[in-house]
Amino acid sequence: MVFQRVIAGLEALQAAGVSARVILPLGDDQPVEFLVDALDMPTMSLAARRLRRSMGNVAYSPVFTGDLTPERRATLQGSAWDLKAVQRHQRDQAA
To answer: How many separate domains does the chain show?
Structure first.
C-alpha cells in the first residue's frame, strides 16, 4: 500500500513536470520524504498540492532542493530513489 502511494506521488509530480526522488524511512514511525527539485514558490506549492492529493493517509514530508545546502542536497540525493527504482523494488517484493 505504501509503495503504491509513493509511486502515485512520484507519478503526480512527474506529470506536473516536477522532478523528484523519494527517501524511504528506516522505521515505520517515520515519514516518507520526497526530495523535490523546486527552487521557486509556485513550483513548491504545486508539488505540495500534488503530494497531498496522491499520498492519502501515508505520512510524508516534502524536502525542497532550493532550501538545502549543496552538501545536504548531495547527501540526500545519495539515498533517494527515483520512480523507476521504486517500481523495480515493488516488483521484486511481489515476486
So the answer is: 1
Q: What is the DSSP letter of 66?
A: G
Block residue for cell numbers 527504482: 85
Q: Dmax over Cα atoms in the chain, in whole Å?
A: 41
92 in any annotated domain: no
Q: Which grid coordinates belong to 81?
A: 530513489
Residue closest to 67 by CA, chosen among 58, 76, 59: 76
Q: Given phi > 0 = left and psi -120 to 50 = alpha, else beta, which region is 17?
A: left
For residue 1, the model assigns a pLDDT of: 66
3-state secondary structure of 91: helix
The answer, as to whether pTM is greater than 0.85, is yes
Residue 95 located in a structural domain: no
Phi, psi for 70 (deg, rounded to 5): -60, -35
* Burial (CB count within 10 angstroms: exposed 0-12, middle 13-18, buried 19+), residue 5: middle
Q: How deeply is 89 buried, as exposed, middle or buried, from its count of CB atoms within 10 A (0-12, 13-18, 19+)?
A: middle
